[in-house]
Predict the 3D structure of the following.
Amino acid sequence: MAEFPKHPFLLTFEETAQALGTDIDKGLTSAQVSDLQAKFPPNELDVGGTIPWYKIFAKQLFNAMIIVLVFAMGLSFGISDYIEGGVLAFVIVLNVAIGFWQEYRAEKRMDALRALSSPSAMVLRDGKTQVIPNPEVVPGDIVLLKMGDTVPADMRMFEAMNLACEEGQLTGESIPVEKITDNNIIVPGTEKPAASEDEVGIGDRVNMAYATTVVRKGRGRGIVTYTGMSTEVGKIAASTSKKKRKAGRSMNYKKYGKRQPVIGLSKRIYDAVGKFLGLTEGTPLQRKLSALAYVLFGCAVALAMVVFGVNRFNLENEVIIYATSLGIAIIPESLVAVLTITMVVAVTVMRKANVVVRDLSALEALGGVTNICSDKTGTLTEGAMIVRQTWIPGNHLYTVHDSQNPNDPSKGRVTYSQAKDEPAPEKEAPKRDYDQERSAAGITFDVPDEKLNFKKEKEPQPELEVEMTDALRAFLLSSALCNLATVRYDTEEERWQTTGEPTEIALQVFTHRFKSGKKTLESAGWHQVAEFPFDSGIKRMSVIYDAPQGATDCSITEGSNSLVFTKGAVERVLDLCDFVGIGDSRKPATEELKESVLRQMNTLASQGQRVLAIAYRPWDGRFTPKKQQTTSGSEDEALRAQVESGLTLLGLAGIYDPPRRETKPSIRECSNAGIKVHMLTGDHPETAKAIAKEVGIIPKNLGVLPDQVAESIVVKATDFDKMSENEIDALEELPLVIARCAPDTKTRMIEALRRRGAFMAMTGDGVNDAPSLSRADVGIAMGSGSDVAKSAAKIVLTDDKFNSIVAAIREGRRMFDNIQKFVLHLLTSNVGEVILLIAGLGFVDDNGTSVFPISPLQVIWINMATSSFPAFGLGREPAAQDVMRKPPQDKRRGVFTNQIIVDMIVYGIIMGACTMVTFCIIIYGANGGELGHSCNKEYNPTCDAVFRARAATFAELTWLILISAWEFKSLRRSMFRLNPDSDSRFPFFKDIYENRFLFWSVIVGGLSVFPVVYIPYLNTEFFKHKGISWEWALAVGFVFVFVAGVEAWKFVKRRYHLLEDLPVQRGAWGQGSGDEDAGHKFRRTMSMSSFKTWASFSRKDTGESMGRASTKVGSAGGVVTQGAVGGAQGMAQAQQHDREMV
C-alpha cells in the first residue's frame, strides 16, 4: 500500500503526486511502472472462486448422522451380516451423493453468475496516453476518465469537468456524486474542515473516485492512490472473508493472565471437536440433528448393553444381531436422505421463482429469521429515478402514480390537484401525555395527531385528470430542452431505452408522458444555439434555443427572441429569479414569495424527493454564440452570469427513487410473521426516513410510538458508531433506519441483533453490503449486484425483487414445518420399534435367547423402503394457510419443540403397544407361548408361530407408519377434516389426495406388504417371517385402534389448548400497515364479546373503573404484547383473543 502523510482526500493533488513520485503532465515512466508492478500485486479483487469439489464432498461425508450410520455398517460387516451391512452402505452412498450433487450444481450456477469482466483503463505514461488492462494499473498512474468508463482504482482527482460518478454499489447513494478537485472537504453537518479521515465517510470524499464505480457524465483526470485489495471496495471484499476469533480463545498470558493459555487452548479444542461433530457450527437445524444423531447413538449403545445384560453377556452372533437390530431401530436411517431431497425440491421451486440457493442450509435457516436488515437502493426501491411530483406556481400539483417502470413513459398516470400554501413553521406544540390519556375516561387512544386534531384546511384535494395549460406546457418545454438525456422506444427489443444521467432521464420520461420529449420538439423546429453545462460549483445548467417560426402553442414562445432554459438546485436558481410563474400567476419574486417556494421545496424533500427548479427567460433578440477560440474563461463566466439572470421560475420537480410496488405488502407480510425489517442505507437521513415511511418500515406519525423508541428509530450512522456496545444494548428498540451507513455500521448492527438473540437475514446488492452478507445468519444478494456481494451471500435473487425474499422465507417456513412433520413421522416409527424390541427381550426361547418380534431386515425395510417415501411426501406438503402468521421458529428448540417431543412419545407408545399386543395374541393366545429355538437365525418347524407373528407384526407396523403420514399432514387437526374451510361433509378423500405423491406412497407402501410376506425363500431366509391367514384381521383391526388413539390425542390438544404456538408479538405498531388497514382490522376482529365491550363505552365510567376493566381484559385474555400498545390496538388484540376463545 502506498504511503501518504494523510489520506489523499485531505492532501492537495500536488502533495499526492509528490508522495507517489508521479508527474501529472507526463505520468509515470516505464522504469517506474516496472518497479511498481514488482512492488504491488495486480490491480484485481480477490472475491473468492469456486469451492473445490472435495470440500463439498467432505462436508457431506463428515455429517453426524452419516458417521453413526458408518459405525453401524462396520458393526454389521464385523459380524458377517453382509445383507444388513450392504443396505446401510447403500443408504450412506445415497445420502452423500444427493447432498454433494446439489451443492456442486449450486456452485456451478454461481460460476455463471460471477462472470467477472476485465475492463481496461486509459493511462498517461511517458507523456503518452495508452489503453491497458485494469490489472496493470499501479499507484501513481494518471488515469483519464470519460462518460461510461468504469473507474479502475481509487483515484485523487485533479481535473473534473462536469464529472459525476455513480457510487450506489459502494455507498448506497442512488444519485451520481459530483466530483471536485479541491481538498477543502467539510465535515458533514458542520462548517469545520475535515482534519482526519475518521470525520468524513467515503461518500463525502468528493475529490476521490473509487474503483468499480461508473462515470455517468463529464470527464476528468486523477492520480491512482490505491489498487486491488487496498481500494475501498477491496477492503470490503477482504472483510467478508476475514475470520474473527471467538471471544475467550486468546492464549496471550501477558494480556489476560497466566491461566489464559490453558483456558484459551481448551476452548479451541472444544471448538475444533464441536466443529468436526457438527455441534457448534452450522444452522440451528444442522446442530440439532447432529446432537440427535449422537443422542440416538448413545441410546443405541445403552440398549445394546441392555440386550447383552439380559442375555448374561453371552456374545454369540445371535445376541449381537439382536443388539444391532435395536440400534438400527432407534436410528432414522432415511432422515438425512429425506431432509436433503426435501431441500433439493425446495431449491428447485425457489430457482423457478428466481432464487438461487448456494447453500442448502440457508433455505432451512430462513424459517427462523426474526430480522431482515435490508439495503434501500435497488432492494426496497427500483434503483432508478422518476419524477414523482411537479409543482407549478399558482399551487398546481401534478403527481405520477403507478409507474411500473422508471424508463417507460407509457406506464402509470398523472393526476392534478390544487396544492395548499405551506404555512410558515409554528412553534412546536407541547407533546401529548399518553400516560395521562390512557388513564382518562375510556376512549382517549393513541390516535395520530393529524387525526385527533383534525383541521379542515388539511383535507386533501381531489385528484383530477390533467389538462394541458400554458404553465404546464412551459414547464415541459424547459424540462425537455434543458436536458442531455435521451428516451426512445426500441422496436426490435420492444422496450424503452434511455441514456444519460438518472435525474435528467427522469425529467425526460416525464415530458414524454405528455408527448413533449426533446426529440419531438427538435423535430418540430426547436434549434439549440448554446449550452452552459452543469457546474457542480453553481449546481445548475442552461441551454439557449430558438423557437420554430410561428410557434404559438405556448405564451413564452411568442415573439422572435431566443429562449434561455435553466434547471438546477432550487436555492441557486431561485436567487437568479426576478419573477415566479407566467400568465395570470406571474408575480415578482419577493422574499416572502421565495420563502413560500422554499417551503414547498421542503414539503417535497420531506417525502424523499430530490427537488430541482425549472426556469426560463427570453433573450433580447436572437442569441449569437461567440466562437470558442476568441473567448477567455473570464468572458465565458461573465456571459453565463448574463444569460442566467432575470429568470422566471416555471416550477419545481420532485425526483426520487421509487419503492418497488411489492415492497410494502412484503413488509406487511413480514410483520404479520413476526419479522422486523430494518433499512440500512447510504442515503441522506431525510430521504431514508421518507422512503421508510412510504414502505411501512416506520409509521408516518412517530407519535404512535413511545418517546424513547421514537427517538432511536431513525439514526445516522455517525451517531450509531459513536455508541458503545453497552449503550446500544441499553436501547429499548434497535433503530429501524440507519442512514449514511458505512460497512462497519452494518456489521455492528448485525452483531447488536445477534446479542439480542435475533436470527437475521441481510439483503443487499452493493459491494458495501458484502461484510454484512457474510456475517449475517442468512446473506441474500441481488443478481444484478456486485460479484463481491454474490460471493459473500448464501442466496442470490436473480430478479432483485423484495417479494422474492418473502417468498424465500415462506418457502423456508413451509420446509421447516414439513421437516417437523417427517421428523415426527420417522422418529415415531423408531420409538414404536424400540418399544416393541425392548419388550421382546422378555420373549425367551428354549435356548434361553431373546426372540425379536421383528427382524433386523424388517426394521431396515420399514425405515428405508416403507417410511422414506411417505416422509418425502410430507416434505412436499403445501404451506399452511397461517404459515406467515406465526412467529419465527425458536432457534434454541429448532425442530424439536415440546409438541413434537410429546407427540413422538405418545404416538410411539400407541404404535408399540398395538404391535406388541398383536405379537402376544398370536404367540400366547393362539399358539400357547411356543417360541421355538434358534428362530433368530433360521426357519425350522418349531418357529412357525414366531414367523407368523413376525409377519403380522411387520404388516401392522408398516400400515401404522403409513397411516401416521396422513395423520401428520396436520399436527393438530383431525385427519378427517384437514381443511377447516371445506364445505364437504366428509372431505377425507379429497384432503389426502391433494398431495398425490404422499397419497400413492401410502397406497403403494401398503400393498407392498403382501409380496414381502408371501414371496418364497425371500420371506423366510431374509425377513425371518412367513405367509399368514387369519392374522391379517388383527393387523387391520389394530390400525383402527391406532387411528382412534391419534385422533383422541389431537382432540385433547385442541380442546385444552395444549402445546399451542405462541402468538406473533408485533409491538406498538405493525410494519407495513397504514391508515387504510384500520377499517379492515376492525371488521376482522369484531365479535359478540367485543360488541359488548364497545357498547360499554356509552356508560359514564370513571378513569379508574375503566382502567380496572382494561386490566381485567388484559389479564383474562392473556394478550401478549411487546412494547407500549395504544388503546385501539390493545382492544383489537383483546377482541382477537375473544374470537379465538369462541
In short: The domain at 292-348+811-876+898-1056 is CATH 1.20.1110.10 (Calcium-transporting ATPase, transmembrane domain). The first helix runs from residue 13 to 20. The chain has five domains: 8-44+118-241, 245-273, 292-348+811-876+898-1056, 355-383+660-800, 386-420+463-624+638-656.
